[in-house]
Design a protein that fits this description.
Strand content: over 45%
Oligomer: single chain
Helix content: under 10%
Structural class: mainly beta
Radius of gyration: 13 Å
Number of helices: 0
């Protein structure tokens, strides 16, 4: 069983920054591919970024150059550094554990989400 707990969301002005954290329980974090997703009001959940356990990263095109995903395996924690935030980044952000190397990607554990609101 894996539990994921996000934190770090909040209200920020456009152009500002936030760092989200996702604390994971269990012993599988260091060998897991971990992702961030977001869901804006009235929209479907969308992929934001993923951190492969071997060090690879991949981003949604619209966040490239602004967001950075990272992880600290010693702390079982996934991060999402978000800079130059825009109002369209407003959403609930979720972290999730990917099932192996499934394609299309499938996730078996999700956090409860943390709200990010960017004012214009």
């Amino acid at each position: 069983q894996v539990q994921l707990v996000e934190s770090g969301g909040g209200l920020v002005q456009a152009g500002g920054s936030l760092r989200l954290s996702c604390a994971a329980s269990g012993r599988t974090f260091s060998s897991a591919n971990m992702g961030w997703y977001r869901q804006a009001p009235g929209k479907e959940r969308e992929f934001v970024a993923i951190s492969g356990y071997l060090g690879s990263t991949y981003y949604l095109e619209s966040v490239k150059g602004r967001f950075t995903i990272s992880r600290d395996n010693a702390k079982n924690t996934l991060y999402l550094q978000m800079n130059s935030l825009k109002p369209e980044d407003t959403a609930v952000y979720y972290c999730a554990k990917k099932i192996g190397n499934t394609k299309p990607p499938m996730y078996d554990y999700w956090g409860q989400g943390t709200q990010v609101t960017v004012s214009s």
